[in-house]
Amino acid sequence: MTYPQERRQYPRVSLTHVSVEVYDSTGMLETPEFCFIINVSENGMLFKSDKKEDKYTSQKRVRLTFTLPENALVIRTDALIIHSQETDLSVYVGAQFKNLTVPDQKSLQEFIQKTLEKPEN
Q1: Which domain holds residue 82?
Q2: How many domains does the chain divide into?
Q3: What is the number of other CB atoms lying within 10 angstroms of the CB of residue 14?
Q4: What is the mean pLDDT of residues 50-74?
Q5: Rounded to the nearest 5 degrees, what angle is found at the Cα of 52, between the Cα atoms of 67 and 95?
Q6: How far apart are CA 18 and CA 26, in angstroms?
Q7: What would the pLDDT profile of 35-47 be if each residue is shown by its tens digit?
Q8: For residue 52, what is the domain's CATH number?
Q9: Per-residue confidence at 55, pLDDT binned at 50, 70, 90?
Q10: Is 60 exceeded by the pLDDT of residue 82?
Q11: Overall pTM > 0.90
């Protein structure tokens, strides 16, 4: 079986048991939703929400806060919702990072590179 060529500019790595706090675009006065990150790249992530309402519509701006595994650095960035896919139990949301700081971008690059270089067990 042949698979279509990957169109993503940046490789993605899967994460398990890592959450992201999702706020509205102002980041203030709203209780965040805690969602599980499915995968992450240098310019975005896919996360899973248990909310079934139309909270994550395409082109909506949100603010994300998360910590990468084995790293104490907290990454806070604005993001743009690119797509969402609803299932019976959850909503899978693809978000593109906006205004990511240079140190955060570097941390993401290093984390992804290390993860991709690890031999599979």
Answers
A1: 13-117
A2: 1
A3: 11
A4: 85
A5: 40
A6: 23
A7: 999 999 999 999 9
A8: 2.40.10.220
A9: confident
A10: yes
A11: no
For residue 23, which of 61, 51, 68 has the smallest C-alpha distance? 61
pLDDT > 70: what percent of the chain? 86
Alpha helices in 30-91 (DSSP H): none
- What length does the chain have? 121
Long-range contacts of 10-14 (CB under 8 A, 24+ apart): 10/41, 10/42, 10/43, 10/44, 10/112, 11/41, 11/112, 11/116, 12/39, 12/40, 12/41, 12/46, 13/39, 13/40, 13/41, 13/111, 13/112, 13/115, 13/116, 14/38, 14/39
6 Cβ contact partners less than 8 Å away, ≥ 6 residues apart = none
Type of residue found at 82: I
Residue 2 in domain: no
**Residue 31 tokens, joined:** 């209780």
Encoded tokens for 61: 């701006």
Distance of alpha carbon 102 from its chain centroid, rounded? 17
Reported as a pLDDT band with limits 50, 70 and 90, residue 59 is: very high
d(CA 10, CA 94): 14
